[in-house]
Specification:
Family: Belongs to the short-chain dehydrogenases/reductases (SDR) family.
InterPro entries: NAD(P)-bd_dom_sf, SDR_fam
Structural class: alpha/beta
Protein name: Short-chain dehydrogenase/reductase SDR
Shape: globular
Order of helices and strands: EHEHEHEHEHEHHHE
Keywords: Oxidoreductase
Organism: Kutzneria albida DSM 43870
Length: 231
């Protein structure tokens, strides 16, 4: 099950799992046409609402892998000027949504007793601040903390919980700056490997952490950032 699976990193992850022969559920607020197009199942879910999350979990209860990819920035600006509604929405989707999905699907994984894997999409912004994105980066730092807490609590049940922390990725959410040559050049100047990521640069890390090949890895947040954290 991939939240936010109708676009961006989530869609790339869903397509990659499908390519390996897995059954994939796109869990999104409006992604049915995309799910149909790529050959996935679809469940409508508003990850901000417990009732919606638990209804989705009840419909597709036997989940081996949960990828919490849904997220947003919701805007930007200095913390001293940021609209509190932008802050609240960002917290609600990025942190509360990840928590609710982990709670609902994690509880079902525990009851099944067959183990599982949860992979959260975090951000290197959790560790490296960018002016104007403090609200977003605070939620991703919280996602990293939630990842570690869930990892230690669920380890006795053979459920691994990890995160992938991309730097900037070319997705619909970043189109505003990625299509501005000056803004793009300024950001890429911070990246030792010289370019922002494409979705296909991030997807393999998600698949690895979800796979048996990562059976002894839990509680990590893996940076996929072209070396940006080195600067």
């Amino acid at each position: 099950m991939v939240t936010g699976g109708a676009s961006g990193i989530g869609r790339g992850v869903a397509e990659a799992f499908l390519a390996t022969g897995d059954t994939v559920v796109v869990a999104d607020i409006s992604g049915e046409p995309v799910a149909r197009e790529i050959g996935a199942e679809y469940v409508h879910v508003d990850i901000e609402l417990p009732s919606s999350v638990y209804a989705a979990a009840a419909r597709f209860g036997e989940v081996d892998v949960l990828v919490n990819s849904a997220g947003l920035a919701g805007g930007g600006g200095p913390l001293t000027e940021l609209d509190t509604e932008v802050f609240d929405r960002c917290v609600s989707v990025n942190l509360r949504g990840t928590f609710l999905m982990t709670q609902a699907i994690g509880a079902r994984m525990v009851r099944r007793g067959t183990g599982g894997a949860i992979v959260n999409i975090s951000s290197i912004g959790a560790r490296q601040p960018t002016p104007g994105l403090g609200h977003y980066e605070a939620t991703k730092a919280a996602v990293d903390a939630l990842t570690r807490s869930a990892a230690i609590e669920l380890a006795p049940h053979r459920i691994r919980v990890n995160a992938v922390a991309p730097g900037p990725v070319r997705t619909p959410m970043t189109a505003g700056f990625a299509e501005d040559p000056a803004a793009l050049a300024a950001w890429e100047s911070r990246i030792p490997l010289g370019s922002i990521a494409e979705v296909h640069d991030v997807v393999p890390a998600v698949l690895f952490l979800a796979s048996p090949g990562a059976r002894h890895i839990t509680g990590v947040s893996l940076a996929v950032d072209g070396g940006q954290l080195l600067t």
